[in-house]
Write a structure and sequence with these properties.
Elements: E1 5-9, E2 15-16, E3 19-20, H1 24-34, E4 38-42, H2 49-58, E5 68-70, H3 71-82, E6 88-91, H4 94-102, E7 114-117, H5 125-136, E8 140-143, E9 149-151, E10 156-158, H6 161-171, E11 176-177, H7 183-193, E12 200-204, H8 207-217, E13 220-224, H9 231-237, E14 243-245, H10 251-255, H11 270-273, H12 281-295
Parallel strand pairs: 1-4, 1-12, 4-5, 6-7, 7-8, 8-11, 12-13, 13-14
Antiparallel strand pairs: 2-3, 9-10
Length: 301
C-alpha cells in the first residue's frame, strides 16, 4: 500500500458516541510523528465543523480545524466554486446556516436558485413545504450527503436520504449529492492533504459510504471492524477493501518503517475544476423556473 495521506471516518472508526476507540489516539499521534497528513471526514451535517473539533479535543485527540472536513464544508466549497453567486435556501440547523453565511454563501428565504438539504435535526413542516415549493418552481436541489440513517450510541436516527427521495419524487428533480460515497469529497480531502487521490488511504467502518467512496475513486481503503460492519456483512457486499483490520490501532503495524510519499503541492479536486461547457448551472435553473411558470409541468433538464 501507499501511505501518502489518510482520510479517516469518525463515528465507529475513532470513537463510538462519546468514547474513543482503544488505540485511536495513539494512531493519530503516530501519523503526526511520522509526518503523514490526515483529515477526518464525516457526512454528518447536523453540526458545524467546530462541534467536531471540540468533540475530538474533548476525547483527547491532538487535532486542529484543518484536520476536519464535513459534508457541509465540502458542499460550501462546491457552492462557492461551481455555483458562484447563486442564491441558496438552506434546510439546516442554525449553526450550519451560520457556517454557510460566514463562508459567503448568499442565503435567501424566497425564490432561491438552490435548495441545500442538510441533516437538519430542527426540521419543520414549514421548512419542508417551503423547499417543496421552491423546487417545484425550478430551484436546484443539492444535498450534503445521501445517508438514510445516522448511528447513535445505541441505535440509529433517520437521516436525510428519505427526504432526498421525497423531494426528487414530488418535484421530479434529481439531487446533486456531495458527501460520501461521492468521490468529490475524497478529491477535496486529497487536495487539502496535498496528495494525489491514488496515494491516499480511506479508513472507515461503513461499506456503503467510506469504502464505497474509495472503490468509486479507485483509491486504497482500510475497513475497520470497530463500528457498523462485520465480516459477514463484508462477505455479502460483493466488493473488497484493500485491507481489513480490527481497529485503527492495527494500522501503524501496516505502515511499519515505510517512508511517506512526497506531497504533490499542486493536487486539486478534478471534479471542482470541471465546468459545464453547454449550459451554466445558473442558466439551467433559470430555464427550469421559466418552464414551470409557463407550463406548470416538469422539465427534463
Amino acid at each position: 500500500m501507499r501511505f501518502g495521506g489518510f482520510m479517516i471516518d469518525m463515528d465507529g472508526t475513532v470513537y463510538k458516541g462519546g468514547v474513543s476507540i482503544p488505540g485511536a489516539k495513539d494512531f493519530v499521534s503516530f501519523l503526526k510523528r511520522r509526518g503523514i497528513p490526515f483529515v477526518f471526514l464525516t457526512n454528518n451535517s447536523s453540526h458545524g465543523r467546530s462541534f467536531y473539533l471540540q468533540k475530538l479535543t474533548r476525547l483527547g485527540f491532538d487535532v486542529g480545524m484543518d484536520n476536519i472536513l464535513t459534508s457541509t464544508i465540502a458542499t460550501i466549497r462546491f457552492l462557492t466554486t461551481q455555483r458562484q453567486g447563486m442564491t441558496v435556501y438552506p434546510v439546516a440547523v442554525p449553526d450550519v446556516v451560520e457556517e454557510m453565511r460566514a463562508a459567503g454563501v448568499p442565503l435567501v428565504e424566497e425564490d432561491p436558485d438552490i435548495v441545500v438539504l442538510t441533516f437538519d435535526t430542527s426540521i419543520t413542516y414549514e421548512k419542508i413545504n417551503k423547499a417543496f415549493h421552491f423546487l417545484n418552481s425550478g430551484s436546484e436541489l443539492i444535498a450534503t450527503h445521501p445517508d438514510d440513517v445516522c448511528p447513535t450510541e445505541d441505535s440509529y436516527d433517520i437521516d436525510i436520504g428519505p427526504f432526498i427521495r421525497m423531494f426528487e419524487q414530488m418535484c421530479q428533480t434529481t439531487a446533486t449529492v456531495i458527501g460520501k460515497p461521492n468521490r468529490l469529497m475524497l478529491e477535496m480531502a486529497a487536495g487539502e492533504l496535498g496528495v494525489a487521490p491514488e496515494d491516499t488511504v480511506m479508513v472507515g467502518d461503513r461499506l456503503t459510504t467510506d469504502i464505497e467512496m474509495a472503490v468509486r475513486a479507485g483509491t486504497q481503503s482500510i475497513l475497520v471492524l470497530s463500528g457498523e460492519t462485520d465480516m459477514e456483512m463484508l462477505s455479502r457486499w460483493g466488493k473488497a477493501p484493500t485491507k481489513v483490520v480490527d481497529s485503527v490501532a492495527d494500522i501503524p503495524g501496516l505502515i511499519g518503517n515505510r517512508s511517506r510519499l512526497p506531497v504533490r503541492a499542486e493536487t486539486e479536486c478534478a471534479s471542482v475544476r470541471k465546468t459545464d461547457s453547454r449550459r451554466s448551472p445558473r442558466a439551467l435553473v433559470a430555464a427550469r423556473k421559466a418552464f414551470r411558470r409557463t407550463s406548470g409541468g416538469f422539465p427534463s433538464f
